[in-house]
Amino acid sequence: MDVDIARWIAEFIIRQPIEDRLLNDLLSLLPFSDNDMGLKKSILLRRISSEISTGSFSEMTLDCLEMIAELDYGKGNAVLDSMKAAYCAVAVDCTVKFLRENLDADTLYFNAVKKIWRNRIHWMEIAGNVGLVSEQLKDWKEEIEAATWDETVCEKISMKDTRYDALKLSRIYLDEAWEDMGPSFLELAVPLMIGAEGGVQNGNPSTEAEAGEEVHLGLNDDNGVASGDNCGDLAVDSAEKREEEMLQPLPMD
């Protein structure tokens, strides 16, 4: 199959509210170009949408947002304010949620502070990668750190509904990101081909729709064609190692 046709099909089905397991199977049959950054962004957005559908977040969402920011930077696009807000909210929830754990809450919280705020975000600031660094993120960093030794601050932030904020702001970002990318090629072409009035409904994955497992993001075989375990090596050079880990096939239940 021609890689352009494969891209058109992939861009279309990624935006449809279909179960992720089925989407994985379909993507595994398509050949992709190694340099298709637009398709890679679509896959990352779909992964975020899939995690939102579960009602909770992991650091995978932070990884996806960071890689999207790098893709946008490479194209000369500024980071959306909604993306900064979503990144901050998800980082906060991925940390504060452990304060609500019944067992080992202090240990889990402290580990999250080290991983997310003292490593991930700290080195982002040191490297001068300010795209996702907002004043709100800096303010939260101070409060998150204070909670490690101040019981009053700890109790205060543990009472906040950080998950609601993360879900709400992530949905807002996804809606804006999909709108910014515009319809897929097939969504534009099919109505013209069949002469249908009104066209085909935009199938950007709804953040409220049900989703199954996370989207399969594999690596190309040597022949450049995606197999059942691989669906496109679309790595960004500046984050190659991290992306290779992100793009490994995901286990299905």
From TrEMBL:
Lineage top rank: taxon: Eukaryota
Region (Disordered): 200-233
PANTHER family: MYB TRANSCRIPTION FACTOR (PTHR46993:SF6)
Official protein name in the record: Uncharacterized protein
Organism per entry: Protea cynaroides
Lineage: Eukaryota, Viridiplantae, Streptophyta, Embryophyta, Tracheophyta
